[in-house]
Amino acid sequence: MSDIYSRIARARKDKGLTQQELADKLNVSFQAVSSWETGKYLPDTWNLIELAKVLDVSISSLVEDKENYSFKTKKNIYNIEHMETFVRTSAKAYKLKNTLKAIDFAIKAHKDQKRKNSDIPYIYHPLSLACHILAFNIIDDAIIAACLLHDVIEDCGIKKEELPVDDETKELVVLMSHEKDTPETRDEIMSKYFKGLSKNPKAALIKCVDRCNNLTTMSWGLSRKRIYRYIVDTEKYVLPLLEKTVKKEMEYNNAAWLLSYHIESMLDIYKRLM
Questions:
Q1: Within 13 Å of residue 144, how many CA atoms lie on the same side as its CB?
Q2: Which of 116, 171, 212, 252 has the fewest C-beta atoms lying within 10 Å of its C-beta?
Q3: pTM for this one?
Q4: Radius of gyration of the chain from Cα atoms?
Q5: 115 with 26, same domain?
């Protein structure tokens, strides 16, 4: 069992902050943070609230005397090289011309990019989407190629005309891309974005696989505030997209069932842990 002093110190270290860095974020002195962690003083209510926000933990995790469980977690489950080989081999076997062009283009476009708050190459994400589609036994060249390219317009500054694929695939990539939003324009932009996706079952499927994959990594890549927003957005936009568009396509029924199960399960887990 541990006390509040050691829990504050552990949460700070888990966040990768020094005592001085934490003090700067809280607008308090270094000595104040040091005294909290040595047990000389307790933080007052206001500082405790701010501590929880900055350290991205719940207040209860700091003040409640609970057993400390430590687990080794994974940031990536599959090997990037194996996923790339699987996609290339499948593309050659099924003669998926767009996919073969897309995989090289995506690897080059995302070169040196990393997944949020990690050292994992960004290409891990689009490769995961492509592998999931193949695992669903959906052998569709445009869908798999668009999975590989779905972030290149939004994140790499690539224009539609530069994509090395056919018009159908280009359209899917465009539908998967949305303009930058602000707090004031977010609802309008997101509503327009998902309305466009809902009109194309293939794009809707890709978006649902994309969200499912992102949900699995948001616990280490996003702040509590962003996690909350992601949960809300998933229920508001993604689940209706899955129910009203993807599930209506007979060929996507098995994929839709699995996606629904995994997305709903992850949302429930996150809600309980929030």
A1: 30
A2: 116
A3: 0.80
A4: 22
A5: no
